[in-house]
Amino acid sequence: MPQCEHMLLMVAIMTDMIQLLEPLIPALRRYARSLLRDRTAADDLVQDCLERAIAHWSQRRAGGDARSWVFTILHNLAMTELKRRAARSSDVDFESAEAWLPAPPSQESGLHYRELLRALAMLPEEQRAVVLLVSIEDLSYTDAAKVLRIPVGTVMSRLSRAREKLRESVNGNSAGPAERSHLRRVK
Amino acid sequence: MNSRPITEDDLNAFVDQRLDSARHAEVEAYLEAHPEIAKRVEGYTSQRDRLRTLLLPIADEPIPPALNVRHLAEVRARPFRSQWWAAAAAMVLICFGGAGGWTLRGISDPPLRGVASLAQEAADNYAVYSPDHLHPVELRAIASSELVDWVSQRLGRRVDIPNLEASGYRFMGGRVVATPHGPAALFMYDNDHGIRLVMLTRPMTLDQEAPMLPLSQGEISGFSWAAKGMGYSLVGPVQSQTLHPIADEVRRQIAGEA
């Protein structure tokens, strides 16, 4: 019966979907949690993201990169969530900021790490997203641009600005813009 | 030997170890000659390393049951929200069960929902109307104001026609079309090469607000989203990179008018 072949195809699509989605989950959780700094909210977001990815699987661009596609869904959900939060209240709780980390930094090195986390939290969301996608999730600059729906040049300039801000806030104010002005900036 | 000047992009790619070996060597030589900049780049590198130390282990945590894809896919299969799940279920019945027609009808009832459904409707209407050379639209661009009145009345919402001339697409006209979720407005555009784009819009019950989602079928690309209770889907036989900025433009115009 030809329909049975059709059914087998459907099952094959489902298997394929699971095989592509499953390995992405750890990274999706990490990205969501690093953006939201909240374990539960981040996992809720990932669940929402996976449900959407499953529901819209057939509309995924054939041959397209599943990782960029799923990260795009997650990123958009995260931005909506952050906007919703910002509208509700603007307080950022730095003290509890480490509860979302798997291993809070040890005492000796703690201060340094805490400064860095605080600086990361203070970055504009769009810059934080670039740092996380590139430095933590190891997305190529092109894939990061795809996820964020911005040109690669914008990825680069956000990355550059974010890194300089992080460095300045961790170092206090060491030599900054003056020495770099002669370098050509690619917008 | 001295080739392209070193850019900030090179420095960042150096930090991320994304340069080819030739360029990497050039940047290395440059940094050796510029200790102040080398110090800054070193700062970036150690900052990147520290962030990785802090954040990478999040991915080592065991995945909670709520995020098990297999379970999620099964849950998804039960209400048959998505078309191919419904089709798979129907096939199971055809192959293995003595199921009557009414059972099948019940199962395949709500095929797709929300923005995904809208995208499907847009693709279907594109397939029907865009190849039509006699009457692709019911009211032509020249009767735009009549068209706006008509679709606004049928949709119960003021619907304006986006202008895509800046992207090279002229408005051809439009019509009211049927969807499983009631009437929708179809607007058609074409460019100098005869490429036609279709935009579909209708009120949304689910997904009142939804971010722009790329949804493609074969040669057809599409972008669908929802804002303020209205769903929008732009589809056409062009690359999604080409269509995306046009969809952004449509969304911008609609947001501006709202």
**What is the rounded distance between the termini of chain B?**
58 Å
Assign an overall shape of chain A. Answer: globular
Strand order of the largest sheet of chain B: 1-2-3-4-7-6-5
Which fold name corresponds to the CATH topology of the largest domain in chain B? Phosphorylase Kinase, domain 1
Shape descriptor of chain B reads: elongated
**Can you tell me the CATH class of the largest domain in chain A?**
Mainly Alpha
Q: Biggest interface and its residues per chain?
A: A-B, 75 and 65 residues
Tally of DSSP β-strands of chain B = 7
Mean pLDDT of chain B: 84
Question: What layout of secondary structure does this protein have?
Answer:
The complex is a heterodimer of chains A (187) and B (258).
Chain A: H1 2-21, H2 25-36, H3 39-55, H4 66-88, H5 107-122, H6 125-136, H7 141-148, H8 152-171, H9 177-180
Chain B: H1 8-15, H2 21-33, H3 35-55, H4 69-77, H5 83-96, H6 101-107, H7 114-129, E1 139-140, H8 144-155, E2 170-179, E3 182-190, E4 196-203, E5 210-214, E6 221-227, E7 230-236, H9 240-257
Antiparallel strand pairs in B: 1-2, 2-3, 3-4, 4-7, 5-6, 6-7
What does this structure look like?
The complex is a heterodimer of chains A (187) and B (258). In chain A, 36% of the residues are buried. Chain A folds into two domains: 1-90, Rna Polymerase Sigma Factor, Chain: A (Orthogonal Bundle), CATH 1.10.1740; 101-187, Winged helix-like DNA-binding domain superfamily/Winged helix DNA-binding domain (Arc Repressor Mutant, subunit A, Orthogonal Bundle). In chain A, 71% of the residues lie in helices and 0% in strands. With 187 residues, chain A is mostly helical. Chain A is built from nine helices and no strands. In chain B, 36% of the residues are buried. Chain B folds into three domains: 8-60, no CATH class; 70-107, no CATH class; 114-257, MucB/RseB, C-terminal domain (Phosphorylase Kinase, domain 1, 2-Layer Sandwich), CATH 3.30.200.100. Chain B has a seven-stranded antiparallel beta sheet with strand order 1-2-3-4-7-6-5, with helices on both faces.
